[in-house]
Design brief:
It contains seven helices and no strands. With 180 residues, the protein is mainly alpha-helical. The termini are far apart.
Length: 180
């Protein structure tokens, strides 16, 4: 009998949480009912943090997957240049939105990760478009060099080790590519 009461209370608690999330009842009423059914042991902060952590993790995974997806759109999927530009702009806007979200939360690690993905997408976009319109290797090398200089300046300005190290490694790879 006690098991049924606990199960019934859990169902009621989930239903009240649903009401609270979807604003079917005012928050203070839901808090009162939750405190009543949990005998004062309900932790609303824990329930909110679990939901936020799940969304936060999903956003990070999608952010990291944008780079390989953009790379695949450029090299493996044959789209017209305008469609590639639209896809790139959407990816860049999504990454920019993530940067703003992480900056508002004051999470510097994930902000720097979003900034890195943003800069990589800009580099890939500029390289693709310069290659599409102008097939001059001098112009392509100039575009890559300018992007890497911007990375280095942003790494110094934002005091981001990730961006600074990426710009230095990118410059080394770029120099090796030019030499060989």
């Amino acid at each position: 009998m006690e098991f049924d009461n606990k199960k019934r209370a859990q169902i009621i608690i989930k239903e009240i949480e649903y009401w609270k999330d979807h604003k079917l009842l005012p928050g203070r009423y839901c808090d009162f009912l939750l405190a009543l059914y949990t005998k004062g042991e309900y932790d609303s902060d824990r329930a909110e943090s679990e939901k936020i952590n799940w969304l936060f993790t999903l956003r990070i995974i999608l952010l990291i997957l944008l780079l390989p997806t953009a790379f695949c759109f450029v090299y493996f999927i044959q789209l017209h240049g305008m469609w590639q530009a639209i896809v790139f702009i959407i990816f860049i806007l999504l990454t920019y939105r993530s940067m703003i979200a992480y900056k508002n939360v004051n999470n510097t690690y994930y902000y720097n990760l979003a900034l890195f993905v943003f800069l990589c997408l800009i580099l890939l976009f500029s390289y693709t478009w310069m290659n599409y319109f102008f097939s001059s290797s001098l112009l392509l090398n100039t575009v890559i060099a300018v992007n890497l200089i911007i990375w280095l300046l942003l790494g110094y300005y934002k005091k981001s080790a990730i961006i600074g190290i990426a710009s230095i490694l990118g410059a080394l790879l770029f120099i090796m590519f030019i030499i060989y």
